[in-house]
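Action item from last week, closing it out:
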Amino acid sequence: MSPADSDSGRSPSDDEKRFGASHFEAAAHHGLPPDPDAHLSEAERDALDKALLRRLDWKLIPWLCFLYLCSFLDRTNIGNAKIDGLQTDLKMTNGQYNASLTIFFVSYACFEPLTNVLLKRLRPSIFLPAIMIAWGIVMTTMGLVHNFQGLATARFFLGLTEAGLFPGVNYYLSCWYKRSEFGIRAAIFFSAAAVAGSFGGLLAAAIAKMRGIGGRPGWAWIFILEGLATVLVGIASYWMVHDFPDEAKFLSEADRARVIRRLKVDKQSSAEHEDFKMAYFWASVTDWKTYAFAIIYAGAVMPLYAFSLFLPTIISQLGYSSTRANLLSVPPYAAAAILTVLIGWIADRTRQRGLCNILVSFLGIAGFAMQLGSNAASVKYAGTFLGALGIYPCIANTITWASNNAEGTYKRGVTLGFVIGFGNLNGVVSSNIYRARDKPGYKLGHGVVMAYLVLFLLIGSISTHLALRGENRKRLAGKRDNRIVGLSEKDIDALGDKRPDFIYTL
């Protein structure tokens, strides 16, 4: 086992056992910064590395999770507001309500592919707080609207201002951690979405009791209070969000060298400065993997949005009051958060991210089959648990899978932006498949979600897993070595994930 593997606690893969870890660390010592720990024993170096990793975790992960909790809460609380009278008070038709959901995903998806370039150019400590303050203001105005036109306008700008957070944070974290360490961190970060779904139901039930204060209905106070809270969090984020490793102020020069060295050994250059070139953009959009992961991600994220936007409505159709429906939406999200983190840990240990997607997707398929095949309230409610368990872990796992297999500072950023943007464009579908005239069974909505889970998530994951396995075999057999003939070490590094010694995560 290599030192890199022992540091992360990951067992060597079958390919590493067969060909030796040295194959995967070829050229690892080229271009490395000076080693501040060269004089230390192996045990002392291991202890320092683990201490550094713990410090990074505490500095980076908790606040970023909190930011995403705010983001997901703000984009999905409209589902809680609906069952508290939003649609009735604004005199909206069912089509207008669905349109207000749809328009969010249009602006959200269109701006996502651009945001990681802006994040790199403007620095995380500037970009992330700025967009949070902006969407907090927009969220507050949603509590002041009087008609469909006002709500639709606010939802459009909410999508535009929120677009940079999720792809930005995933890209940002991938620039701090090795590929075998990123999955569990991405899972913990994304589990904030499940916590937001759980917490959102409790919060909405409490805030809705403010109806009548200031002459505003309860649903309006949900938007106003959560929007104002987001603005305050955005202001605090200027001091709480750190920049990339080459500029982060909390790192000493020795720790900066350690972070960059450990990533270079992992064949990553993402911690270092790199000037933007259009070649990096074209490297991403001409790579088949970008489109494969975009399809897989769509297969998970469309069901995610359908689930989170309409879960309170679905539960209320089982005969519960609006307050109780909000409260009953809590347990499925809590279970999903736990499994999301567990799958992230398993995938990091095994490097079998495709197989994790495949196995977990069967839970979601079973959950929506229960929605389609039964009229019993208890069975349908149990199905919401399986639905959540089969969707949420695949979101974080797919993003990590895509990140693991895209190397190069800007290429990875563009790839993640494209994958997440295309996936979120399918939120347009999720906003229009749970029609009021289909209640209480919502057969169309459940059927479309199941189709996405089967065709895009399950079959897409199987196909991509097999394609990456085949490419790895070719590289290990030396069939891609012609790519580096006559190239300098710098030019070989510039190939990123096209390097013959870059082994894909399956």
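Closing note: The chain has a mean pLDDT of 83.
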